[in-house]
C-alpha cells in the first residue's frame, strides 16, 4: 500500500497509476453497472413480469368474452336476420350496429360498439401491471453506493478474509474499505471500518518508508519499513470490477535471517579468501623449507663424507701409528657421529625429494612376499640379539606395482621403530593380508606405545615424536614421515594405532595389480 500517486490505487481502481492525470482528477459519475441485480432480484423480476403478462392476457380474454356475450344477447332479441347479420359483425373492426323491430310495436334496441375505448382500457391496465412489476423489481434490487458490492459478494469477501492467516483488506475501486480481517485491524489499530485506502496508507507508512519490489498488471509487491524496525510485505492484487485486495504480512524475521545469512556468506567468502592466501603462503614456505633443507643436506654431506673418510683412514692407521690409544677412541667417536649425521641428512634429503616429486618411484611388478622376506632377513639378527620374538605371517602371493627398494625401506622404517621400542622379551609381528582390491601390511609390537598427544605429532616431520626417537638419542623424526610418503606415492595410505604400555600397530594398505602377476609368472 502506498499513496495514490505511487501505488495506482485511486478513483479508477487498481491500474489508475497508468491513467492520464487529468482523467484521474475527473469526478466519477455513477454508471449503469452501479445497479447490481442479485439472483433474488432476478427471480422477483421474472415472477412480477410473468404475472403482469398473465394479467394482460386475462384482461383481453375477458373483454373479448364480454363482447361475445353482448352480441349473443342482441342476436336473441333482434329476431331479424338483417339485424342478426349486422350484429354478428366483428365489433373490433370499428363498425356500428343499430337494430329495430318491424311494425314499430317493440321498442327499438340499439348497441354501439367503441373498440378504440376498449383497447385503450386494456392497454392502460396492462401498462399499470407492468409498471407495478418494474417497481417491485427495483424495490428488491439495491443500488451500489460508492461502488460497494452487494451483500452476497461482501459475504464472500468476509469468508475469504477470515480464512487468510495474515492481514487482509478488500477495497473498492474508489478506495472504500469493503471488508478486513482481525489481523489487519490489529496492524492498523482499527476500531471501525469506515476507512479509506489513503487513510490506511497514512497509518501504515507513518514514521517509515516504502520500497517497490515488483509491479505488473496483476501484482504489486512492496516492502514497508516501519519506524519500530519491523518490516511488512504489502501484496496488492485485483479482484475484478475495479476492486482489489491488500495482503499484509510481517517479514521482519525473514529479513533479519536473510541479512544474517548474507553476513555469514560474506564472512565465509572472506575466510575462504584468507584461507586461500594462507594456504599459498604455507605452500610457499614449505617449498622454501624443502629447498633449503635439500641445499643444506647437499652442502653438509660433502664435508661429512670427508670427515668420515679421514676418520676411517686414521682408525686403520694407514699412514702409521697414532702414538696414543686414546686417539683410537676419539676417531671411532668422530666416525660414528659423522655417519649418524650423514644418515640424518640423507633422510632429510630423501623426504624433501619425495615431497617435491624430484625423486620419482619406479613402477615395476613387485612380489609382496619378497619385500617382507627382505625386511625379515634384515632384522632377524637384531631381534635375536635384543631378545625379541619376531613373528612373520604366511605368504600372500600378492603382486604390487611400485618401487621395490622404496617398499623395502618403507616397511624397514616401521620395523626399525618397532624393534627400538620393544623391550627384551617382547614380540614384533610382520604380516601381510591380501584381498581382491589390495593388500595390507601390518607391523605390530608390544613396546612402550604412545599417547594420543604424541601420536598426533607423527604426521609432522621433524617433530621428534615418531619412533625414530631412540633410547640413545633423538633422531630427526623422519622414519614414519618417509614411510608415509612412500605409501602415498605408491597409491596407498598408512594408519597408526597405539596405546601406552600396550604397543603399537601400523597398517599400510596398498593396491594390487592383477596384470602384473602375469608378468611375474612369465
TrEMBL record:
A single Gene Ontology CC term: plasma membrane
Ranges that cross the membrane: 34-58, 117-139, 160-179
Any GO MF annotation of the entry: phosphorelay sensor kinase activity
Superkingdom as given in the UniProt entry: Bacteria
Alphabetized UniProt keyword annotations: Kinase, Membrane, Phosphoprotein, Transferase, Transmembrane, Transmembrane helix
Recorded catalytic activity of this chain's protein: ATP + protein L-histidine = ADP + protein N-phospho-L-histidine
Transferase listed as a keyword: yes
Protein name, per record: histidine kinase
Organism: Devosia lucknowensis
Lineage, highest ranks first: Bacteria, Pseudomonadati, Pseudomonadota, Alphaproteobacteria, Hyphomicrobiales
Amino acid at each position: 500500500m502506498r499513496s495514490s500517486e505511487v501505488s495506482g490505487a485511486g478513483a479508477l481502481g487498481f491500474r489508475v497509476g497508468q491513467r492520464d492525470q487529468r482523467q484521474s482528477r475527473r469526478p466519477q459519475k455513477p454508471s449503469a453497472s452501479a445497479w447490481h441485480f442479485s439472483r433474488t432480484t432476478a427471480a422477483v423480476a421474472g415472477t412480477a413480469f410473468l404475472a403482469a403478462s398473465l394479467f394482460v392476457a386475462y384482461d383481453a380474454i375477458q373483454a373479448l368474452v364480454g363482447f361475445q356475450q353482448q352480441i349473443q344477447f342482441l342476436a336473441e332479441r333482434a329476431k331479424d336476420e338483417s339485424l342478426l347479420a349486422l350484429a354478428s359483425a366483428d365489433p373490433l373492426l370499428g363498425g356500428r350496429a343499430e337494430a329495430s323491430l318491424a311494425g314499430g310495436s317493440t321498442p327499438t334496441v340499439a348497441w354501439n360498439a367503441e373498440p378504440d375505448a376498449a383497447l385503450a382500457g386494456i392497454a392502460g391496465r396492462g401498462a399499470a401491471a407492468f409498471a407495478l412489476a418494474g417497481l417491485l423489481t427495483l424495490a428488491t434490487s439495491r443500488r451500489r453506493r460508492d461502488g460497494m458490492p452487494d451483500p452476497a459478494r461482501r459475504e464472500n469477501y468476509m469468508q475469504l478474509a477470515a480464512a487468510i492467516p495474515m492481514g487482509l483488506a478488500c477495497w473498492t475501486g474508489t478506495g472504500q474499505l469493503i471488508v478486513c480481517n482481525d489481523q489487519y485491524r490489529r496492524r492498523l489499530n482499527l476500531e471501525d471500518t469506515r476507512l479509506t485506502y489513503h487513510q490506511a496508507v497514512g497509518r501504515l507508512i507513518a514514521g517509515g518508508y516504502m520500497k517497490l519490489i515488483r509491479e505488473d498488471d496483476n501484482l504489486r509487491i512492496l516492502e514497508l519499513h516501519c519506524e519500530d524496525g519491523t518490516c511488512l510485505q504489502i501484496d496488492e492484487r485485483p479482484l475484478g470490477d475495479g476492486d482489489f485486495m491488500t495482503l499484509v504480512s510481517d517479514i521482519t524475521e525473514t529479513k533479519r535471517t536473510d541479512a544474517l545469512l548474507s553476513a555469514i556468506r560474506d564472512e565465509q567468502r572472506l575466510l575462504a579468501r584468507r584461507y586461500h592466501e594462507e594456504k599459498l603462503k604455507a605452500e610457499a614456505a614449505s617449498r622454501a623449507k624443502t629447498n633449503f633443507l635439500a641445499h643444506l643436506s647437499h652442502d653438509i654431506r660433502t664435508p661429512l663424507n670427508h670427515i668420515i673418510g679421514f676418520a676411517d683412514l686414521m682408525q686403520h692407521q694407514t699412514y702409521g701409528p697414532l702414538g696414543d690409544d686414546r686417539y683410537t677412541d676419539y676417531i671411532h667417536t668422530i666416525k660414528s657421529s659423522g655417519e649418524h649425521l650423514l644418515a640424518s641428512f640423507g633422510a632429510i634429503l630423501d623426504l624433501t625429494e619425495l615431497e617435491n616429486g624430484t625423486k620419482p618411484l619406479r613402477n615395476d611388478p613387485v612380489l609382496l612376499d619378497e619385500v617382507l622376506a627382505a625386511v625379515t632377513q634384515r632384522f632377524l639378527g637384531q631381534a635375536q640379539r635384543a631378545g625379541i620374538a619376531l613373528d612373520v605371517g604366511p605368504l600372500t602371493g600378492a603382486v604390487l606395482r611400485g618401487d621395490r627398494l622404496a617398499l623395502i625401506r618403507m616397511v624397514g622404517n616401521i620395523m626399525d621403530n618397532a624393534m627400538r621400542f620393544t623391550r627384551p622379551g617382547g614380540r614384533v609381528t610382520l604380516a601381510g593380508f591380501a584381498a581382491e582390491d589390495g593388500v595390507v601390511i601390518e607391523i605390530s609390537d608390544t613396546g612402550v606405545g604412545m599417547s594420543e598427544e604424541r601420536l598426533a605429532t607423527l604426521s609432522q616431520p621433524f617433530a621428534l615424536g615418531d619412533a625414530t626417537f631412540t633410547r640413545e638419542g633423538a633422531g630427526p623424526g623422519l622414519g614414519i614421515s618417509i614411510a608415509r610418503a612412500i605409501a602415498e606415492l605408491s597409491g596407498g595410505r598408512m594408519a597408526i594405532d597405539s596405546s601406552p604400555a600396550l604397543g603399537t600397530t601400523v597398517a599400510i594398505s596398498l593396491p594390487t595389480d592383477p596384470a602384473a602377476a602375469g608378468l611375474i609368472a612369465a
